[in-house]
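Hey,

The postdoc asked me to send both predictions to you directly instead of through the lab channel. I've kept everything plain text so nothing gets mangled by the mail client. Protein one:
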Amino acid sequence: MRIWKVIRWSICGALLYAVLCTSVRGDTWDKKTIVMFRDAVEIPGQVLPAGTYVFKLANNIANRHMVQIWNEDETHIFATITTAPNYRLGAPDTTVFEFDERPGDSPMAIRNWFYPGENTGEEFIYSGFHF
């Protein structure tokens, strides 16, 4: 009798764990990141003026390296960009954007985006530029 009670509680615990872990992963599925740029920044194909933007992965299971860039309230999409995976040795504690300088009066260009807790990030690909 006691063994059935242990088994029942073990199953309940496993189900609760599965539900909690699924909800935690669900919140980070699109890696939604809200960022404010004080100056204009370049993304492949265009320049974003200073402002607040939402970066997130597109809801595309076949390609997890498509970044969408939205306005602050997510009513307008500026771009959907295919990126390449990029890796770093350690996972950052906070969101990391890495930039490259451009010649002249051109704004800095976003090169990489790393989500907190992940060592795999998104590398933005620019035609005509080699990093």
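Protein two:
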Amino acid sequence: MTDFNIIERRWLVDLVPDEARIRCSYQRRRNRILQYTVQLEVAHAGRWWPVLRYDNAHGFCHCDTIHADGTQDKIPVYYGDANQTFTRAIEDLRANWQAHRARFLRELHK
């Protein structure tokens, strides 16, 4: 008998404790990711702020740059299938979180 249940996972990756983290989640069936979210969050003034989010909501893989005023820029991203894009999103945020954090904090202090 084959198991085709949907598996859900959620976890946090601390980049710098109490300063920056990546929030990850996915739903998958077997080895295929159906839905995912990878979000960079930074701590400032006693709360966590979303700064950049990769997901495949709205029927396509994209990246949302989240601005301090709450607006978002949505950019389509294509790194292959959802599995590849999910992995690439985590790699990107691990490598570039400091630049994304600096951009967001500059916007907060305008």
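Summary for protein two, as requested: The chain has one domain: 6-108.

Thanks,
C.
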